[in-house]
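Morning - adenosine-5'-diphosphate inputs below, output right after.
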Amino acid sequence: MVSAIVVRGLEDAGLKRFIPAFAAISDQAFLGLMMSDYPSHGVVDLEDKQKLFRLIKSISAASKASGEAPSHPAVEKPNALIDLDENDGDLLSDAGVAFQLSPLSNQKGAAPPAASTNNQDDPPKIRVVVRKRPISKKERERGDEDVVDVLTKSSTVVVNEEKVKVDLTKYVEKHAFKFDEALDEQVSNEAVYQLTVGPLVRTLFRSGRASCFAYGQTGSGKTYTMSPLPIRASADIFTYMAQQQYRDISLCVSCFEIYGNKVFDLLNQRKKLNILEDGKRKVVVVGLKEFTVDDVEGVKALIEESSKQRSTGSTAANSDSSRSHSIMQFALKRSAPVAPSGFRRGEEPPEPKVVGKISFIDLAGSERGADTFDNNRQTRLEGAEINKSLLALKECIRALDSDARHVPFRGSKLTAVLRDSFVGDQARTVMIANISPCSTSVEHTLNTLRYADRVKELRKDKADRTPGGVTPGDEAYYAAVARAAVPGPEPMERDKDRFDHRDRDRDRERDRGPDRFVSPPRQQGFRMASAAGAVSDTDGSAAALAERHDELMDSILLEEENLVAFHRAKLEEDMETMRQEMALLQEVDKPGSEIDHYVEQMTALLNIKRQGIQELQAKLDAFKAKLREEEALSRTVHKIRA
Ligand code: ADP
Ligand code: MG
């Protein structure tokens, strides 16, 4: 008897009337059916045959992906986050809440820290840490200045932005941001580990899920920060594993890269990997290679291998590691206990169970999200995907901690793949925002700090988290900062001025979706216009077109994938048809064969082929039309802005 999944699949595919015909066979037999077997189950109509063919393919793919036979879909745990894609993000775009908790608002949130504050055993769900890298000799030589102050004690970062007034006098605008931790250029990688991933390692041994991200512009120190973390974490993991109670646990390492909307295995010659959804709507990376390691040297070797594969690929045209997210995953697996009677003959030993999992993510350069109007289409598409993934990531992290019922995992490849790091009570996230100290990078630095700031601004239990953590309060400090800025209007005025900037940013956010990246020249233009008290028409129409362009990019990214998947499925269908043609030819060559049968079968097969080509052609044409529209729109926006 086929399982409920197959029965439902038959129903959904419009093949309900054939359910009794498959009652006598197992799922395995069902999935192994060839097209030539279909008539023996009563499926003779061409269209029905195709439907059945596709159904079998999709169930096989999903069950292969999940590494198990199709089973009943899992019942959602009552407390699990629910993913309702049609409402994705609705709950999160509540600008009112976001505004209220901004660091410059008048929130009086600083309640005394609760006793559990520093509980190492239960690290906070989200930690946001900023790390400033040192200025290099070269940067100094070319006249760059260090414009970032890190106030370690108050976990605050201050960016001193030099500005020019209308009368051309210069002044410094100070921007202060408070985080869980602010790390200056003196802080070692070991200290970074202790403040970020270190406390999470223990949780991995009791079903923990963790992820650690490095965010920032290219050259801000993401890779420098991220690459030692897995090595250091593995040392701690092996220490735990040496204990008697963890003897049956092993560490499995995998590593992949998300480039555009494709995924590549960094431990298997950058093989392209497919992403599929299994029967439980869980996204799985199919065929990702995993290595079991038993010492730190093993982990180091894998990291070296992956960074080698990453850089080898980047010599090719249009390929650049700053445009990809690289992800290293550790899975702690417990081998299933062997039953006293051992295994029965022919029975597979049970799969090891994943106890804990941690992902280390070196994100694409945040400035790459602004490439959506580049001259090169590939660059534009990659930029759009990066933009999308960084926004989706922020929304997912925010959702983690705000009782959100809708988590927008499906917003991007990145978040879809990392979904299991975000779901459940045991999920922990650390975001490390890397910043450059240079005066020439000030726009990017501010963008990074604003991003990191929004990641944590929805936290509802600020008070009983890390002491001095993210509570916006601290009026005295902001007042001092405002007074320190010379020359300029009165402190109050300045504060108000800054408020207005944020207000405007938020308005734009609400209008066009959350923080669309703004390329520096464009932002400059906007500033000038608003300083003069008017936003020109050109800006307005460009914004409308840019919005249409954003939508188009989204749909192109999605349709590209659909087109390729459709093509692949068609090809499999073609191969099956071809096999049948060959069988038919063999048949007809035999003495005494019936020519009528041959003609009839041949006609049916040609019909299948013709229909297939037509469908593929139609999809291709629709896609080409989208590409043309995007090209034209991109040029128009470019012209308006120029
Ligand atoms: P990203 O990965 O963000 O593009 P990198 O990690 O490659 O940036 O860092 C850029 C440069 O700055 C590298 O030469 C790196 O060695 C150096 N660097 C980054 N952070 C630090 C730091 N905290 N201390 C010393 N050098 C650093
Ligand atoms: Mg890097």
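Note: DSSP finds 19 helices and 14 strands in the chain.

O.
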